Amino acid sequence: MSERRKDLVESIKDRGKTLEAEMSFFDHLEVLRWHLIRSAVAIVLFTVLAFSYYDLIFDSVIMGPKKASFWTYRMMCDLTERFNLGADFCIKDLNFKIINTEMAGQFTLQLNSSLLIGIILGFPYMLFEIWRFVKPGLTEKESSSASGFVFYATLLFVMGLLFGYYIITPLSINFLANYNISEIIENTITIDSYLSTVGTLSLGAGVTFQLPIIIFILSKLGIMTPAFMRSSRRYATVLILIIAAIVTPTPDILTMLTVSFPLFLLYEFSIVVSARVERNRKKKELEFYSAR
Fold it and tell me: Which proteins does it associate with, and in what oligomeric form (predicted)?
């Protein structure tokens, strides 16, 4: 009888632990939900702000790479004059038209591009909300070592965004929009296609520049090591050159190297980050075994 009573008590305790764990899980989901809601509200506010000042954003930012007076094209012409790089490197005209083919196309364009700007401007705050959600689950040392997460992730995102907008996007637009296989075909690009190209290349570069942050997290988890990254350098080099060739499908090697060089630096910097994480982990292990 006493054994049955003990089993019943243990069963009740186990059930209580299970309920406590389930409540903890749902509590975490509730906290995560509010972090996501605040991030969404911030993006909506930035979207409304972009919608309100859309004329300036459309003329100066979205249509910037379409104009021959764009900063990138002017710098390419200056480099051509100084180093005699050839007339093809200096871009003075982008011979293509942008059209709208749908009844609500221009209104949809304003909504989509405003949302795109809202996501870009709200990205740092979204990172901050993610950090606030993750931080309570970290130890004091882990929290201290990752204290600059929001700053560095935002910095890398902005650097990648600028690189994508000022380097990858104009070079790609110039090549693709002016590429002709026959004189009877006139390049008339839909506004949706143009916006998609500008947004995808710019945001894609911003996300790609998060590589050191991803490597930092994977190294903390023990999934990635600097030795593996060094041994895979030749494969990474080939992959980066392929990506550069796809993103900027221009026939000259100079343009491809211009795009691929920052990616090489990013990969090497990621190796340094991974090596530092591994060095700190080994140091902690040595201190742990020395204290025993």
Answer: Forms a complex with TatA.
Question: For residue range 143-173, what is the model confidence (pLDDT) as tens digits?
Answer: 776 778 889 999 999 999 999 999 888 888 8
Residue 162 and residue 191 in contact, taking contact as beta carbons nearer than 8 Å: no
For 75, the domain range is 2-209
| Mean pLDDT computed over every residue of the chain | 82
Listed in order, strand segments (DSSP E) in the chain are: 97-99, 188-190
Q: What are the structure tokens assigned to 177, written together?
A: 């929009």
In a domain, 281, yes or no: no
- The tokens describing 129, both together, are 């909300």
Angstrom CA distances, 87 to 78, 80, 91, 279, stand at: 11, 7, 8, 50
* Alpha helices per DSSP H over the chain: 2-52, 54-57, 71-83, 105-134, 140-145, 149-163, 169-178, 191-208, 211-220, 226-231, 233-247, 253-291
Place of tokens 């935002």: 154
* Backbone torsion region of residue 274, taken as left when φ is above 0, otherwise alpha when ψ lies between -120 and 50, otherwise beta: alpha
Q: How far apart are alpha carbons 202 and 196 in whole angstroms?
A: 10
> Quick one: 91 exposed, middle or buried, by C-beta within 10 A (0-12, 13-18, 19+)?
buried
In a domain, 239, yes or no: no
The answer as to whether 280 is a domain residue is no
Q: Which two tokens stand for residue 268?
A: 């090497």
Distance, in Å, from the CA atom of 25 to the CA atom of 137, rounded to the nearest integer, reads 13
Going through 73-184 in order, the beta strands assigned E by DSSP cover 97-99
Backbone angles phi, psi at 53, to 5 degrees: -110, 40
Report the phi/psi class of residue 181: left, alpha or beta, with left for phi > 0 and alpha for psi in -120 to 50: alpha
Would 289 be classed as within a structural domain? no
Q: How many structural domains is the chain composed of?
A: 1
